[in-house]
Specification:
The structure is a homodimer. The first copy, chain A, has about 300 residues and is an alpha/beta fold. The first copy, chain A, is built from 8 helices and 10 strands. In chain A, the strands form 2 sheets. Chain A has a 5-stranded mixed β-sheet with strand order 3-2-1-4-5. In chain A, strands 8-7-6-9-10 form a 5-stranded mixed β-sheet, with helices on both faces. In chain A, strand 6 and strand 7 (about 140-145) form a beta hairpin. The mean pLDDT of chain A is about 95.
């Protein structure tokens, strides 16, 4: 029997990845395009899927893992719609509108929920019942998957805006978040690092005292995720996490912050198996989007 | 048709509430006893349920909402067992052992998860899809219910140990948590308040500047719950929350901390409908325990 086809979109702030896979996960067509306005991107998205359908037959379900903020509540009338994003043209854009002509069910979730799902299925989160995937890059966000389903409340989580302790006598940088100043994203995302020191941590040569400062802020989120979600593992990806020595420093700072309070086999001494980098690298998002499409089809 | 009977235990640090209810929720027998060691309490628990069964017939399921730390993972071999509690005699005690003679299924969850479930069913959390119930008393803890089920990861949450920003030039108190010093519980639980000022906030006359200081710490948890769980409502109960003016101060501090970033109808201006006190008062826990027993029976 021929397997049905699944359509997938990983919509990132800088690029879109489009794929069509068989239900087994085998990718039969893939392309990338630069993120511009919806008026520029969406026709290319439609053209790609039209061509694959002409070549291979109909698509049974679509999965979208997208940047946000975006409404990911299937019960909402605005499901799949970008909400308050400052990205020009995106507020009000809706994935279902462009995918509607293919007459297949669509599931829309966030990029980090998609990556969490991908890592849980095929990456560093395999075997976990509860998994948290955090990206530290241009922004900071976390997806939490439990029993194979991304969690949410009335909206997707916004973990980048937690407020870590910030000692201005050590780090006088006021923080770069337009809403909160020195929230985590304002202190430790890529733009905050370059605003503070003029270069990325890697470009600066990854000096230990600077790496430790940023690691301390990220560890505040790591500890908060432990205390508020008790995940079986924490994955940290994104551009900033590629800084040499950073993940090790995050492990040390998180272990210090937890202070031995949580006793569990998951939290191994040194946290080497608890706080890890992604297993799929940059493929986590599209892998998760394909899984969302598979769920949509079933 | 006669309704089946449900057994319920709310196990608190100072008292136990025992109840037997019909499936409709109607309580037909109830008693209270002081929490001492398991060797002292457990025979009284058994005697109560034996008597009710002799009078009214068998119990179809038991629900337990207990202080912790306690293993609440139904898949764990130690399900229902107290883990690392410093309370004399309780580490290793297990509810299933004492309820075993009644040959009915048992569900064990935390006191705050039980209270969250009770408030969601019949109290201030009615109509919420995701609800967070936090107690601020001798300790600080939160239960999060989503779609009628308490959430957990590899263990129950431990929200009392998040670390709020702590400016020692304003509040020189070093914090009273034996693990973390100035975590939330170390700064804002009842014992931390009396250690700092010699009396409770209410005994001190609820001076606004002291109320605001404590509210700021609690608001750190409130904002973290929003960012990491996006609940439809936050309920704050427990002895400390009975301080006049405290809930209002928590609303103000939480709104300030969120900085207008989260736009949602749930977060009404002023947060009067978002951050609320319990609707069931001290009945939330036993109401939730009865619901856990109903789930166990079905």
């Amino acid at each position: 029997m021929t397997q049905r086809l699944i359509g997938a979109i990983e919509a990132g702030g800088t690029k879109f990845v489009l794929a069509v896979a068989r239900e087994s996960g085998e990718v039969i067509a893939e392309t990338r395009l630069a993120t511009r306005t919806p008026a520029e991107c969406f026709p290319e998205v439609i053209a790609f899927f039209r061509q694959v359908i002409a070549d291979h037959g109909p698509i049974a379900g679509f999965g979208v893992a997208s940047f946000g903020p975006i409404d990911i509540d299937p019960a909402s009338p605005r499901y799949g719609t970008f909400t308050t994003t400052p990205k020009p043209g995106w507020a009000g854009a809706r994935f279902q509108d462009i995918l509607g002509e293919f007459q297949a069910p669509v599931i829309v979730d966030t990029d980090v929920n998609g990556a969490a799902l991908g890592e849980w299925l095929q990456g560093a989160g395999q075997g976990c019942h509860t998994l948290a995937y955090t990206t530290v890059g241009t922004g900071i966000g976390t997806g939490v998957v439990r029993a194979g389903r991304p969690l949410m409340g009335f909206s997707h989580y916004e973990t980048g805006h937690v407020q870590p302790p910030h000692d201005r006598s050590v780090d006088p940088f006021p923080g770069g978040c337009p809403f909160h100043g020195d929230c985590l994203e304002g202190l430790a995302a890529g733009p905050a690092i370059t605003a503070r020191w003029g270069q990325s941590l890697s470009e600066l040569g990854s000096p230990p005292e600077k790496v430790d400062l940023i690691a301390g802020y990220i560890a505040h989120l790591a500890a908060s995720l432990v205390l508020l979600h008790m995940p079986d593992r924490l994955i940290f990806g994104g551009g900033v996490m590629k800084t040499p020595g950073l993940i090790e420093a995050v492990r040390r700072a998180t272990e210090a912050r937890l202070g031995g309070y949580i006793q569990a086999p998951q939290l191994d001494p040194g946290l080497e198996h608890y706080i890890v980098t992604p297993g799929l690298g940059d493929l986590a998002g599209i892998t998760g989007a394909i899984e969302l499409g598979r769920k949509a089809a079933n």
